[in-house]
Each structure stands twice: as structure tokens, then as C-alpha cells.
Amino acid sequence: MADTYDLAVVGGGAAGLTAAISAARRGNSVAVLERLPSPGRKILATGGGRCNLLNEGLAPSSFTSTDPALVASVLERFGRREIREFFSGLGLRLQADEKGRVYPATNQAASVLKVLELEVRRLGVQVEAGFVVGRVEPRAGGFRLRAADSRAVEGRAVILAGGGKAYPALGSDGSCYGLAASFGHRIVTPVPSAVPLLVKDRMCHLLQGQRLLVRAGSRIGGRAGRTAEGELLFTQYGLSGTAVLDISEDISIALNRDGLRDVAVVVDLLPDMTAADVAGELSRRMKAGWETRSLVSGLLPEKLGPLVPQLAGEAGAAAGKGDPREKARRLAGALKRMEFAVQGTRGWNEAEFTAGGVDAREVKPGTLESRLRGGLYFAGEVLDVQGGRGGFNLAWAWATGLAAGLTE
Ligand SMILES: Cc1cc2nc3c(=O)[nH]c(=O)nc-3n(C[C@H](O)[C@H](O)[C@H](O)COP(=O)(O)OP(=O)(O)OC[C@H]3O[C@@H](n4cnc5c(N)ncnc54)[C@H](O)[C@@H]3O)c2cc1C
């Protein structure tokens, strides 16, 4: 006989543990079924081991989704204040940085997981580790959840909180999509997001390892998309760094979901100077007789120096020829608008997030119950809701966990 619980939660990640706590605090018997040997492994890896668990600017507009109304309904009830209260109630001190990113005051993701685990234990939640849910079968009065080995658990209600497909080594392998689809749910094609990009360009090879503060933007089918300011890292395979991760979602959707090929990253290497100022400075240096490869010295890292003759040439003004002011203007243009054609992304193993998932329109606002099957709920990254980097995605996991855990 399988053990029967009021609630069975598939996945012991950020959303699943929070949902379990939320439901158990209301007196429900709860089981968390987690495929890895212990829950919360991804939490430990977040924020570079510091866990950026919230953003002070949390708002529905921080997210994209097939159903923005669903996002608003959840955050209305469990917003920034409620998430802060939830963690301070668990005994976790928080601190925010100048960009509004909230971290545990210990600066350790392990503190976040620890307080969640202590509460799970205090409430008597049953955590079944190494339990890979392979099937969720409807039964009279609830569901039977079966593992690949012959284990089974019954739940009067079920929350699917198995995450998306990003970073499968940390547990989320996309299997919850299949479980949701078995109840007729539509899955918006998941693609990797917050992911480094593949670019075949000699510049990347030559500048390998170079970090720069830039403004980067996407250009898809000739149209300018999102922009972000931050770090650009040239790598052997292409481009990475926070600015690139921040604009990668639209690019990944264009390449991996929509099958588009005309996709590029446009980089401004000198975002704090206008094109006219850059041209003026370059022109002054040319008139003073600076050699071409030294023209950007002091403006940009020295590693770029040897590339300047090529850039000047590409900009249509071969070194040493033509009107210096025109040559300076063109070189400034090349530095302010450097374009890299993108061939692909580095894929799931290097993605921080999933864009896509269970169609949010098929989920009831507020409660997160399936519109297709009563007693079935969703929480976290499994839903087609994506936030920017900076603590928004974990905020979504906590907020949806708290909301779905209110299941009747
Ligand atoms: C390296 C990295 C760093 C990140 N840093 C940040 C950050 O600082 N701030 C931020 O806001 N976001 C960050 N994110 C994103 C954030 O971690 C996720 O959005 C969030 O963890 C999603 O929570 P979740 O509970 O929905 O899914 P997950 O955390 O992925 O948890 C899902 C759980 O379900 C389990 N599971 C899956 N399928 C099954 C199954 N069939 N049976 C049983 N168990 C199953 C998995 O093993 C996993 O433990 C980061 C992501 C990565 C990969």
C-alpha cells in the first residue's frame, strides 16, 4: 500500500520546499519527492554560491509569460514584503546591494537551504530523496505518483515543482513537462536562457579571456531587441558575461524556438562616451601622430590595440589614408557598434534559466491550480514565466511555492 498524503510535491527545489512548508503550516500532511539524493541542490549553486534570492524591484513587469495576469495574481499576494517576511520568519537575515539584489546576510546559499530544511523537518514533511517521479496517475480522490523503481506515493493534491531544463546536473531535467503534458497541458517549447552565446569570429579568439564593461543589445531579423549594460567576456567559443546573459533570452528564443538565423549581438565598447566624443578623441590622437595600434590606449584594454588597424580597415578607412577626421569617425563607429553574428547558445548545461514551459494560461490565477485537472498545481520554473537575472527567478519560485501550498 502506498502512503497517502494530503499533498505530494514533485521536486524538492526552491518552489517545492516552499510549497511543502506553506501547505504543512496549514495542517496538511505533505511528502516531497526529490529525484536527487538530497533536496535543494540548485539553491546551493545560485548567485555564485551566495543565493541572490530576491530583488527589491520585484514587480509583474519583471517577468515575461504567456499570461502576465497570472504573474500579477501571484505577486499581488506574495510580493517582495511577503517573501522577506517568509525568510525572516525562518530566521534568515537578509541584505541588499546597491542594485536591489537581496542575499542572505551570511553571503552563503547554504544558509538559505538550511533554514528551509529546518522548517521542513519541524513541520514533519516527509522528504523522499532519490524518488524520480515517472508518472502521475489520476485516481478517485487524488493521484498516485510512481517512481521508476516500484515506489509509489498517493496525494489528494499534487504540486508539480520539478523546475525546467536548465542545469540538469542540479536536478531539473525537464521531466515535469511530460507529467504536465500527460494531463493535456500545452508546453511552450523550452529554450535555454541566461546562457553564453556561440559566435564564430576571429575577434573572440584573439580577445579570449578579455573582460570589458559594455552595452550589449540583440538584433533579430534586422530589428533591435533588448539591451543590457554590464560585463562582456570574450571566450574561445564566443561571448559570455553578465551583459550577454541578460540579453540571451530573446536570442535563444529566435534561434532555438523560432528557427531564425539572422541573429546578432551588437556591442558598444565605450558606452559612457558618445560617438562624437570618441571620434573627437581619436581624431586628436591621429593629428598628434599616434600610431594606429595605440589609438585606443587608455580608452580600452591594451589587448585591443593590435586589432585597431583591422577595425579601422573594416570601418572603410585603411590606416594612414584619407581624411583623419573621417577615419576617426568611422573607427569610433566600429567601436560603438561592433556586431557579432550568433550561431547558437551553449545549451542547457550552461543555462541559468528556462524560457518556456507549462502554458501559464492553463493555470488558474492566484491558486496556480490546473484549469484542466482539479487538484493538480504548479510552482516555480516549470511554468512559462521567466524573470530577468538579479533574484527574480528565485522570487518567482518562493512566491509560487507559497501560493500553490495553499491548496485546499
Ligand atoms: C547556476 C545557477 C545560478 C542561478 N542563480 C540564481 C540567482 O542567484 N537568483 C535567482 O533568482 N535565480 C537564479 N537561478 C535560477 C533559479 O535557481 C531557478 O529559477 C530556481 O531554482 C527554480 O526553482 P524550482 O524549484 O522551480 O526548480 P529547481 O530549483 O530546478 O528544482 C526542481 C527540483 O525538482 C527535482 N525534480 C525534477 N524532476 C523531478 C522528478 N520527475 N521527480 C522528482 N524530482 C524531480 C529536481 O531534482 C530539483 O531538485 C540560477 C540558476 C542556476 C542554474
What does this protein structure show overall?
The protein has helices at residues 14-24, 41-45, 68-77, 80-89, 109-122, 175-181, 202-206, 242-257, 275-287, 308-314, 324-336, 392-404, and strands spanning 3-10, 30-34, 54-55, 63-65, 94-96, 101-104, 126-129, 133-139, 142-147, 152-160, 187-193, 197-198, 211-220, 223-234, 238-240, 263-268, 338-341, 344-345, 353-358, 376-378, 385-387. With 408 residues, the protein is an alpha+beta fold. It has 3 domains: 3-192 and 348-404, 3-Layer(bba) Sandwich (FAD/NAD(P)-binding domain); 193-270 and 339-345, Elongation Factor Tu (Ef-tu), domain 3, CATH 2.40.30; 275-333. Strands 1, 2, 7, 8, 9, 10 and 20 form a 7-stranded mixed sheet that branches. A hairpin with a 4-residue loop joins β5 (94-96) and β6 (101-104). α1 (14-24) packs parallel to α12 (392-404) and α9 (275-287) crosses α11. The chain starts with a strand and ends with a helix. The mean pLDDT is 95. Residues 10-16, 33-36, 41-42, 45-47, 51-52, 131-133, 161-163, 166-167, 171-172, 175-176, 352-353, 380-381, 391-394, 397 line the site of flavin-adenine dinucleotide.
